[in-house]
Amino acid sequence: MTAADQLQEILRSPGVPPLAFALAFAAGAGHAVTPGHGKSLAAAYLVGARARLRDAAWLGGSVAVMHTVSVLVIGLAWTFLSLSDVLPMGQLTTWLQLVAGVLVIGTGIWLIRRRLHGHRHGHGHGHGHGHPHDHSHPHDHAHEHEHEHPQPSGKRPGLILLGVSGGLTPSPAAFLVLVTGLFLGRAGFALLLVMTFGLGMAVVLFGVGALAVAGSSIVVRGARSRSLLRLATRVAPVVAAAGITVLGVGITVLATINLTTVT
Amino acid sequence: MHHPRRAIAALLAALAVTVFAAPVRAAAHPFGDPQTVAISLDAARSEVVHIRWKVGGLDDLTLLGVSLGLLPRDRVMLDGAVFFQASDAAAIGPSPRFAEYLLRQVTVASDGETCAGTVQPPADLAKSGVTLDFACPAAVGKVTIAVRTLTDLNSAYQTLATGPNGERAVYAAGKDTHDWVLGSASGDETKRSAAVQLGLVVGVSLLVVVLLVLLVRRKQRTKRVTR
């Protein structure tokens, strides 16, 4: 029996068992561990944008919030507005995947454009195109002043967009928990479980992001002495940005194929 | 503190994951609706109960067809994956074996007496489901309805049931009967209670978030002053 199945059982038992939240958290974390869910996108973005730990937290947080919102909206529409009569769920989720793919493409292109723009006009904020020394100093500088300027490099819009696209399609387990809760008259408890589920997802994504940040900071540190790494440092953000765009195209194409075959 | 090899490995790993892992994403949410039954009393005859059964995911319909012997076994792949084809619903819908199955798994009792069921020939089984009519001996008020569809294939299946006046119930393995009041109307209690509960949870969590933000801001401000 999976954690998601157990949640269904717990939803029926009286009271609010604390065990349920541990289970919901585990189910969310387990869900985020399965392939996809923007982990690779997150890693690519965080490497590409030279992000910090805080950015990884923003990413995880926006996935959790968006996932909860999408489960809530779809669950309510399904239960009270007969969504299933209007649109089969499989089709709806495929449409949502299409939107997610387009969001990812947009983020990727935005990231590439930022780099190319910075290169052409020689702006200092075009990370990675100047001499590595030039790069690392403004970065450290920005780090020191982050309290005064919460958005030192404009990474967050892209991060939140990626997070939104990652949480746009609700997970089947969370959707079922909420809908069952609505049918059983335990809507509030079910929503709390879905939120905890999202939190579990967020923690895993944050962990992946933190690894990516640690990995890329090793690269940056190493780059000061090794010419090969210097090249890698310069190329990585562009490759990561291109990778994000390619992934977005992949998601969009897959969703389109699914839409044309399902209907 | 230079680890060029590890750094390159990390970079390559990140890129490999980036390029190869994400397209699986689209397949990570293959979720369909859970199966549903909609229960209603006939408008003209107060002794007839209508139950419309609708499968959730269409692959569930294929699975049922295979278990009833209406579809070839090879429709279920070795890894357990099932693929629905448009012809499946057409093969299952008119079959007497399917009707028998439905009448065996869905039962209605009024005043302790079983109501006789018939299955309407489904027009579009995949899209709008199938309707069962149960004729009870006398006009019904409270009825006991049992739903055991698909749980014989896998106990994880559950059925979400809607009745008149917004009444709702969940059928699952082991909890396969429910009493419904089909007679006089009452308020839409479920919807109101859901709105109150959801509003409460959303409100309280917003409050918590706002408090946390204020707390963090204040901490930062005091940090800046002391610096």
Automatic annotation (TrEMBL), chain A:
Location(s) in or outside the cell: Cell membrane
Its membrane topology, per UniProt? Multi-pass membrane protein
Basic and acidic residues bias spans? 131-150
* UniProt KW GTP-binding keyword: no
Q: Where is the composition biased (Basic residues)?
A: 120-130
- What domain of life? Bacteria
> Which residue ranges traverse the bilayer?
56-80, 92-112, 159-183, 189-214, 235-257
Per the entry, what this protein does is: Efflux system for nickel and cobalt.
Q: What is this protein called?
A: Nickel/cobalt efflux system
Name the species this protein comes from.
Hamadaea flava
UniProtKB/TrEMBL annotation, chain B:
This chain belongs to which protein, by name?
A: Uncharacterized protein
Signal in keyword set: yes
User: At the top level of its lineage, which domain of life is listed?
Assistant: Bacteria
Instruction: Recite the UniProt keywords alphabetically.
Output: Membrane, Signal, Transmembrane, Transmembrane helix
Please give the start and end residues of each transmembrane region: 194-216
From which residue to which does the signal peptide run? 1-21
